[in-house]
Amino acid sequence: MTVVATVAGTPVPVDDVDAREAALRASPQTAALPRPGTSEGRQLRRWLTQVLVTEKVVAAEAETLGVTVTDSTPTQEQLLPDLTARLEIGSIAAGALADPLARALFACITAGVDVDAETVADYRRRNPDRFSGQAGPEVAVAAMLRGAARRRAFRLWLDQRRAALVELAPGYEHPGDPRQPDNIHRH
Fold first, then answer.
1. What local confidence, expressed as pLDDT, does residue 172 receive?
2. How far is residue 186's CA from residue 183's CA, in Å, rounded to a whole number?
3. Under a CB-based contact definition with an 8 Å cutoff, are residues 120 and 138 in contact?
4. In the structure, what pLDDT confidence band is assigned to residue 187 with cuts at 50, 70 and 90?
5. Which of the four pLDDT bands, split at 50, 70 and 90, describes residue 116?
6. DSSP type of residue 172
7. β-pair partners for 10
8. Helices 39-65 & 14-25, crossing angle to 10 degrees?
9. Which residues pair with 7 in a beta bridge?
10. Contacts of 28 (CB under 8 A, 6+ apart)
């Protein structure tokens, strides 16, 4: 069995990446996908590997912490209300939050994250026109800032847990890893 990664010692077989790629290539979005075997095609497989290992990290951490899906589990729209929120948290974490278990874990990990009144007041001073026509602008600002703070806290926590639990096989590095040969991000 060829392994693309291990998560907490459990192997992730290349067959899982193959299956995920095949499902994508069978979807209506297939025309937008890179050709297999190209640099971009290998980058897609690296990204799919990141998605798979993140799903496994979420499952392992939820089990460790005793997190389960309940009626109070937030919806995806509550955690990622707009494109800005999705960009803040990143495509892999945003994708993971499609799963109710990941959203329950998000709620658990970020339950203690809040913003204070001074942070809200400072934001209002710097952005006086934002939320100005809205009733209770401080409440809206606090909710927006709290959401951003929770997304950041979850993203950082998830990055730390992936670093601790995931070992990637050569050729399946993160797509943005500058050490891998298909990285095209240049300055």
1. 86
2. 8
3. yes
4. very low
5. very high
6. -
7. 7
8. 120
9. 10, 166
10. none
Give the phi and the psi of residue 3 in degrees, each rounded to 5.
-115, 130
Give the pLDDT confidence of 122-151 residue by residue, as tens digits. 999 999 888 877 777 889 999 999 999 999
Structure tokens at 133: 């026509």
Which tokens in the block code for residue 68?
């389960």
Q: What length does the chain have?
A: 187
Task: Find out whether 80 and 118 touch, Cβ atoms under 8 Å.
Answer: no
Instruction: Give 44-60 pLDDT, tens digit per residue.
Output: 999 999 999 999 999 99
29-51 burial by CB neighbour count: b if 16+ within 10 A, else e? eeeeeeeeeeeeebbbbbbbbbb
Helices assigned H by DSSP within the chain: 14-25, 39-65, 76-79, 83-89, 91-96, 100-110, 117-126, 137-165
Q: Using an 8 Å Cβ cutoff, are 9 and 173 in contact?
A: no
Q: Which helix (H) or strand (E) holds 10?
A: strand 10-13
